[in-house]
Specification:
The chain is an alpha/beta fold. It contains nine helices and 13 strands.
Length: 332
């Protein structure tokens, strides 16, 4: 008993002084096969060692026009106007207003522009303030197998970055008025878009950045991808769908970052990231407490300064890891 207590105290002291340690890496690597559920509740077995579809990857890299950019504003809140790369008239003849902030929403794997994340966040933004909302559609790659989709994310992200440069050239909409929001694989996608613009984008919000094939991937989201990068981690447990450790300027771990109240499946934990974010746009009510290390996150003993999670603030700043607890249903 005494020796066990000594070991426990030694481990606690080490964690307290070691700084942020990977939650996910501390509990093991992904197995080759993982189970993923789509929004309809259908199960998909993912082979993380599957051979990717190189012909599709070549097509995606060669033709950025495969991505669609759908504009919503208060003048057209539900009917999209399509903005097309290298066709300036699609922008100048649209409702896009370069004097307003621009929000770009990017979905994740097995998703498209019509699934819940996009209209939910879009509506929250437009109800809150007068902004441009661009919903990016990348279904050609997103509906492929996971290994192919993950490998193609950097190219699709660069294409988004090139589109935003084109948007800036046509309208002079400043990069410091742009906010990119990406879910799952889309979180790494918007990171690559910001990288294409040399980190000039005002803000990136990463909603449970995808974990499988991304833990040590050099193309994953990083702090250099925007002026301010924030990540919300909700499914970072064993074989979780999200990265379970800090990768941004500020990393929030709601309810510890591994499982969420009312959720039984990984997909519920995973989706909770965008549900929480949408609620914070409206209410700005979820506040985290800064943690010194991972042990404090797991034991819910954080005692540092407090910071609002999410919201739509383009001037937001901060650093470190934060824990907060939420309820199980909207607005949490």
């Amino acid at each position: 008993m005494q020796s066990t207590l000594i070991i426990l105290l030694a481990c606690t002291a080490y964690l307290a002084n070691a700084g942020p340690a990977p939650l996910q890496e501390s509990i093991g690597q992904y197995s080759r096969y993982i189970q993923v559920y789509d929004e309809d509740g259908n199960a998909h077995q993912v082979d993380l060692e599957a051979v990717p579809d190189h012909s599709l990857l070549s097509e995606v890299a060669r033709n950025p026009a495969n991505n669609q950019y759908n504009l919503f504003t208060r003048r057209n809140p539900t009917e999209a106007q399509t903005l097309v790369m290298n066709k300036p008239e699609t922008i100048t003849e649209s409702n896009f207003n370069p004097e307003l902030p621009t929000k770009v929403i990017v979905h994740g794997w097995l998703r498209n522009q019509n699934l819940n994340i996009n209209p939910t966040i879009r509506n929250a933004f437009l109800e809150k303030s007068d902004v441009n909302v661009i919903v990016m559609e990348w279904r050609l790659l997103a509906l492929s197998d996971y290994s192919t989709a993950a490998l193609g994310v950097p190219a699709v992200g660069r294409a988004l970055g090139q589109f935003l440069i084109f948007l800036n050239d046509v309208t002079e909409a400043p990069f410091d008025s742009m906010h990119l929001i990406g879910f799952s694989l889309g979180a790494h996608l918007v990171g690559n878009a910001g990288r294409e613009i040399e980190g000039k984008i005002a803000r990136i919000t990463a909603l449970d950045p995808a974990g499988p094939l991304w833990n040590v991937n050099p193309a994953r989201l990083s702090t250099d991808d925007a002026v301010y990068v924030e990540a919300i981690h909700t499914d970072g447990g064993i074989d979780g769908l999200g990265i379970g450790f800090a990768i941004a300027d500020v990393d929030f771990f709601p309810n510890g970052g591994m499982s969420q109240p009312g959720c039984l499946l990984n997909i519920c934990n995973h989706n909770r990231a965008w549900e929480l974010f949408a609620a914070t746009i409206t209410y700005n009510h979820l506040i985290g407490t800064r943690c010194n290390n991972v042990l404090q996150i797991q034991l819910n003993t954080c005692r540092g300064p407090r910071l609002h999670m999410g919201n739509d603030n383009l001037k937001k700043t901060g650093s470190g890891m934060y824990r907060l607890d939420t309820r199980w249903r909207y607005p949490f």
